[in-house]
Amino acid sequence: MQISFTRAGYDVRAVESADDAVLLLHREHFDCLVVDLRMPEMGGDELFEIAASVQPHLRQRTIITTGDGSERAHELIAACGCASLGKPFDLRDLLDLTRQLTLRAREERA
Predict the structure, then answer these.
(1) What ranges do the domains of the chain cover?
(2) C-alpha to C-alpha distance for 110 and 48, rounded to whole angstroms
(3) pLDDT band at 2 (very low <50, low <70, confident <90, very high)
(4) Could you tell me the pTM of the whole model?
């Protein structure tokens, strides 16, 4: 995924854990965030809330991915109010959604 995003022209930061993501969110600015709903240290919904508190613009520019089709998963994503993609997804769909969100970021900066 990182290679595809880099080839598409994105400056990508991939991390091994949610804790690493939190540290990076405090050090760098991000136009868009892609997280999985289910991660070992914390849920994607929890990481989303941290990201939105550190960088409020990410509240409208986060994509949550999940293979969990449960009602609870849908409730968590709905509560976040952000974009989501169910797994398995086509990488082109993720790239298109990212493009839409980063275009919004560029328009807001202009």
Answers:
(1) 2-97
(2) 25
(3) very high
(4) 0.90
Are 31 and 101 in contact by the 8 Å Cβ rule? The answer is yes
Domain made up of 2-97: CATH architecture: 3-Layer(aba) Sandwich (3.40)
pLDDT digits (tens, 9 = 90+) for 31-86: 999 999 998 889 999 999 999 999 999 999 999 999 999 999 999 999 989 999 99
Given phi > 0 = left and psi -120 to 50 = alpha, else beta, which region is 56?
Answer: alpha
3-state secondary structure of 16: coil
Residue 62 has phi, psi (to 5 degrees) of -120, 140
The whole-angstrom separation of Cα 84 and Cα 5 is: 17
Strands (E), 23-79: 33-36, 62-66
**Neighbour tally for 47: CB within 10 Å:** 23
